[in-house]
Amino acid sequence: MNLPFTEKKREVQMFREVFGTDEGKEIMAILARKFHVYKYMQTPDPYISAFQEGQRSVVVQILEILKTDLDAVKRRLDQLDDERLKRRQ
């Protein structure tokens, strides 16, 4: 029995169950916005840069596990931003 493969398969299945729902997709878009997936936050402090890259890499890894198209997440993020702006008006 290939236990690491079985564990990895279960892990991927859990990620897909959680982030496969509409709410999960919305959360993924929020995480992508908050943790700089689509923009580079340049700072003179290397510790802050490393911290921010660590945040970003977690979100990117989840997207890779889900085999999610970054453009699809960006479209969802833009949609959420549009809805938020409409609520403010």
> What is the subunit arrangement here?
single chain
| Ends apart, CA distance between termini | 59 Å
Name the average pLDDT: 86
- Which segments are poorly predicted (pLDDT under 50) over 5 or more consecutive residues? none
Principal-axis shape equals flat
Question: What do these coordinates show?
Answer:
The mean pLDDT is 86. Helix 2 packs across helix 4. This protein has four helices and no strands. The chain is 79% helix and 0% strand. The protein is an all-alpha fold. It has one domain (3-88).
List keywords for this structure.
mainly alpha; 89 residues
Summarize the structure.
The chain is mainly α.
Q: Which helices and strands, and how do they pair?
A:
Elements: H1 3-19, H2 22-34, H3 46-66, H4 70-88
